[in-house]
């Protein structure tokens, strides 16, 4: 078709105008509009309580920028509200999460409407390889049944007595290693030693097996290494939107996870197999006290057939290891860090030990195997129970440095929390022990000060309300190892502080690593010295 000359001219003129002059104007208008909207949105956000949010990406940028100090960033978000929404990119989580520090909400989630707040699919799926169908990664009737069997075993006096012996033995080994370092004034990582000790003790109590992580040469134990790596990689999945793809392709850290799980499974199934055979062969031998033997024994029906498969037993014992190992070790590490900052508190603990030692509490002179053993024999379940100040100092540590700093559930149905917050079905709904432990409205103006005295009345330990001090969770899923953890921590703290004053290596950085368990990112590098004159340092966290 022939075109009209006039039209052609007009068309070219318009396109010329748009292309040469209107284009930049439109672009400038668009940028101007966007910047104005950004400014307006930013202003509107200033009045929003909790973290600032942006369309599509939510608070992702702020989270990424603050990742290394996530718990303190969360604490800042609670400065003007007790509950907030936290949105991330839809690929990570399609619904905003809800976080609260309000004890009424915490009680509602953990107890009053417990059935509406299971751990949920997202949580359990990520931990499946490591935890299997163990207590940490199941909900509903599977959880109920395991809780029933585990609580029965955990409350037995026999297990408590066995644990006391094991805790004493390994805390003494730890002190012997400290004595070696002290004799040459050598620096060492006390967090690493605590981790070794608690893996040895949980393995001994769980499997009845010696892992020798705390033997004098401090060796690398393959099971221990794989256990650490598998823990880290499983929890890393919570922040990695590509983990399923990596698992499918069997690449990167997902491949590593698979290899680690295999090493742990081979070891565990081997122990289970041997134990079953031994128990079947030596029926007239005294019963072994470790959990594995007790589970096999408990769950064998009258015809001698085990009700639990090897896989069930593997899951139960590995869950026990994960539950008790890192939590206790990191709490002890933060406690010892507090002792380096507050020698006056360490001194009071040592004074209290005189109630146990019936002699001057602080050991002077050479630290030998004999002196360690002699003192350790005085530390029994009963005598440790009398150490109220030590108990308070450990609780105070957990208030400020809870081993599990953030806890989350998944709403099964739409709901409304006691403070009026609407919860949409499927929302991640969590509470934050790290922030709760530092809130002035809960602990008073001195919330940031390490002060064991706040737990004492007339010298006796006073527990705080469970939904205010939430380090062990509360309600039907409360920690089953709380008493056992205090027992081990008191045993270890009493033995270490009796013989040594700890000093932080000057310049050693103290910071947590953002993980499911609040460990010290760079460890706890200290020197141990014979107790000497003690100087107080400022009694604050900063
Ligand atoms: C200072 C040490 C400890 C702290 C702070 C602690 C804290 C916790 C927390 C916060 C939970 C809830 C976790 C969740 O559901 O996501 C929990 C659960 C649990 N803890 Fe502990 N724990 C400690 C030591 C131990 C020890 C030594 C054991 C074993 C002897 C243990 C056994 C368990 C078990 C079996 C559960 C699962 C309860 C359930 O789901 O019904 N914990 N613990």
From TrEMBL:
It comes from the Eukaryota. Signal peptide: none annotated. Its cofactor is heme. InterPro entries: Cyt_P450, Cyt_P450_E_grp-I, Cyt_P450_sf. The chain crosses the membrane at residues 21-42. One of its GO terms (molecular function) is iron ion binding. Keywords: Heme, Iron, Membrane, Metal-binding, Oxidoreductase, Transmembrane, Transmembrane helix. Heme binds at residue 479. Belongs to the cytochrome P450 family. This is Cytochrome P450. It comes from Ceratodon purpureus.
């Amino acid at each position: 078709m022939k075109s009209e000359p006039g039209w052609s001219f007009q068309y070219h003129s318009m396109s010329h105008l748009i292309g040469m002059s209107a284009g930049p104007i439109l672009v400038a208008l668009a940028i101007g509009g966007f910047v104005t909207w950004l400014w307006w949105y930013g202003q509107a956000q200033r009045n929003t309580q909790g973290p600032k949010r942006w369309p599509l990406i939510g608070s992702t940028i702020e989270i990424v920028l603050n990742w290394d100090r996530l718990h303190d960033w969360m604490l800042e978000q609670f400065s003007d509200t007790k509950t907030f929404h936290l949105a991330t990119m839809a690929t990570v989580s399609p619904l905003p999460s809800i976080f609260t520090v309000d004890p009424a909400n915490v009680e509602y989630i953990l107890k009053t409407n417990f059935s509406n707040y299971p751990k949920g699919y997202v949580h359990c799926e990520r931990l499946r390889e490591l935890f299997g169908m163990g207590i940490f990664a199941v909900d509903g009737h599977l959880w109920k049944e395991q809780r029933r069997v585990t609580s029965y075993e955990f409350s037995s006096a026999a297990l408590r007595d066995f644990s006391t012996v094991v805790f004493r033995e390994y805390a003494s080994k730890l002190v012997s290693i400290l004595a070696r370092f002290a004799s040459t004034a050598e620096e060492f990582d006390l967090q690493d030693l605590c981790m070794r000790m608690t893996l040895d003790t949980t393995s001994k109590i769980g499997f009845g097996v010696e892992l020798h992580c705390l033997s004098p040469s401090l060796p690398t134990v393959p099971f221990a290494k794989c256990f650490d790596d598998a823990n880290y990689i499983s929890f890393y999945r919570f922040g990695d939107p590509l983990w399923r793809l990596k698992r499918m392709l069997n690449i990167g850290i997902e491949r590593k996870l698979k290899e680690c799980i295999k090493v742990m499974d081979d070891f565990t199934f081997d122990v289970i197999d041997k134990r079953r055979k031994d128990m079947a062969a030596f029926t007239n031998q005294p019963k072994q006290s470790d959990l594995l033997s007790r589970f096999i024994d408990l769950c064998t029906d009258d015809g001698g057939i085990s009700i639990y498969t090897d896989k069930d037993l593997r899951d139960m014992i590995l869950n026990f290891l994960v539950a008790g190992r890192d939590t206790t070790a990191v709490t002890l590490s933060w406690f010892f860090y507090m002792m380096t900052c507050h020698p006056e508190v360490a001194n009071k603990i040592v004074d209290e030990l005189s109630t146990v030692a019936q002699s001057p509490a602080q050991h002077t002179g050479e630290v030998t195997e004999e002196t360690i053993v002699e003192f350790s024999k005085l530390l029994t379940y009963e005598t440790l129970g009398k150490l109220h100040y030590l108990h308070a100092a450990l609780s105070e540590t957990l208030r400020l440095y809870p081993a599990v700093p953030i806890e989350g559930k998944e709403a099964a149905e739409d709901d409304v929390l006691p403070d009026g917050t609407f919860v949409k079905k499927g929302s991640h709904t969590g509470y934050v022990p790290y922030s709760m432990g530092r809130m002035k409205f809960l602990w008073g103006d001195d919330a940031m000060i390490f002060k064991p005295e706040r737990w004492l009345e007339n010298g006796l330990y006073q527990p705080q309300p469970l939904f205010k001090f939430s380090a062990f969770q509360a309600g039907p899923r409360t920690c089953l190892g709380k008493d056992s953890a205090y027992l081990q921590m008191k045993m270890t703290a009493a033995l270490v502080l009796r013989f040594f004053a700890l000093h932080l290596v000057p310049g050693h950085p103290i910071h947590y690593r953002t993980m499911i368990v609040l460990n010290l990112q760079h460890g706890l590098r200290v020197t141990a010295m014979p107790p000497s004159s003690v100087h107080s340092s400022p009694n604050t966290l900063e």
